[in-house]
Amino acid sequence: MSVGRAERRLQARSGGLVAAAALIGVFATTPGQTVGVSAFIDPIAADLGLDRAQVLVLYSLGTFLGILAAPFIGKLVDRFGPRRLIVPAVLAVALACGVMSLAHDVWSLGLGFLLLRAAAIAGLSLVTMQMVNLWFDRFRGRVTALAMMGLALGGLVIPPLVEPIIQGDSWRTAYLVQAVGVLAIMLPVGLAFYRNRPEDHGAVRDFGRASIGATAVPAISLTLAESVRTNAFWYFSGLTVLSNGVGTALMLDHVRAMAGAGLARDSAIGLLGAMTSAQAIATLGSGALIDRFGARPVGLLGLCFLGFSVTCLWMKPAFVGGFAYAMTLGAMIGTLQIVYSAGLAESFGLKHLGIIRGNMFVIGVSGAAAGPLAFLWSPAAAYSIFLGITVVAATLGLVGMRLESKGT
Questions:
Q1: Is 402 part of a structural domain of the chain?
Q2: pLDDT of 49-75, one tens digit each?
Q3: Cα 154–319–385 angle (5° rounding)?
Q4: What CA–CA distance (Å, rounded) separates 119 from 122?
Q5: pTM
Q6: Which range scores top for mean pLDDT: 7-11, 21-25, 341-345, 375-379?
Q7: What's the DSSP call for residue 371?
């Protein structure tokens, strides 16, 4: 009996260390996330003599081109596992921050954005979340939520941390500080705690507790070609386009929109904290809901948050000092990110998940690249487009749930 208890404690400890490492890994992607780039847009534009719109276009192009590496990295993760790829991914993020600090014209800034988005999103984020999917099934939603709390933590910590450096020294120094920080944090964590499949390390999924019920590992293993022919693929594609595209667009436009509503820059920056707090709460809550009800219905809840947030920003951006818009936007981002991350494994299995996730990254980050461009037309046009795609995604979700209920 004591041996059994000791074994369970060891399994729980192994799973706990993997979950904690995943949270730290996602946190370390913050320099390449939109919330981490948002505070740099105006200082970069002023320093390089560019219009804000030019910087946004470069960011969008860098995002799109950078994420094209995701399918290739996904194949590598399927073949070699997260442990062998974590060091290259960390080094790439630090290098990208260094390249950003050296940007001096349009071309070098575009290259910096490309490397930053490729390293953080297509690299470190994909490697980290694949580890979560390999190690957890019954608790996948909750551990995915815990890992994605790294994004909320990054949004709470990084912008207030780099803002004094940007204002007191320069945005270049702030990127160098982030490069050093990523190396100092992630190299030890990656080498010590990143793992491949649990069976490769004499461990068992889900903290050593048997997977039971509806959230057990699905008896499916769809290839990329097979997954593309399913309703689920296009539903999750819609969710990731909206989460990435609308989230990126609204956060990059956040300071301008709040200034138009009469809020000062410091108040607008403060709302980012409210946004990430709501994201954290929604992340934890949606993880538990996914383990209970599955990813698809929880995705519809995230779409409701999205619709309210965009409508609020469109009709009355200064409502409650912008708090209502910021809170529901954060809730949308937190919910849809977890639904997407957990839903792919739930619907398609694990064998080809890396390549499926890599291609889904291309779709989602294409949305992130295109989202800000809608504002070059007009804010009203952008809001109309966002709400239209929301309706399409909700329709796919409802149809998919109906098909699923008929199948059972």
A1: yes
A2: 998 888 988 988 888 888 888 888 988
A3: 70
A4: 6
A5: 0.74
A6: 21-25
A7: G
- Give the total number of structural domains in the chain: 1
Distances from the Cα of 324 to the Cαs of 278, 331, 341, in angstroms?
10, 11, 26
pLDDT tens profile 324-381: 888 888 898 889 888 887 888 888 887 788 888 888 878 877 777 777 777 777 888 8
What range defines the domain where residue 183 resides?
Answer: 11-197+221-407
- 313's tokens: 């920003």
Closest CA to 342 of 249, 232, 190: 232
- DSSP secondary structure code for residue 104 in this structure: -
Give all strands (DSSP E) within 256-370, no chain letters. Answer: none
Is residue 1 in some structural domain? no
Confidence of residue 10 (pLDDT cuts 50, 70, 90): low
pLDDT mean across residues, the chain: 83
Tokens standing for residue 401? 């749930």
Q: Residue 399: inside a domain, yes or no?
A: yes
Looking at residue 372, its amino acid is P
Let me know: does 282 contact 330? Beta carbons within 8 Å: yes
In a domain, 129, yes or no: yes
Residue 141 belongs to domain with CATH number:
1.20.1250.20
Helices (H), 68-170: 70-80, 82-101, 106-117, 126-135, 140-168
Q: Supply angle C-alpha 62, 129, 346, rounded to 5.
A: 115
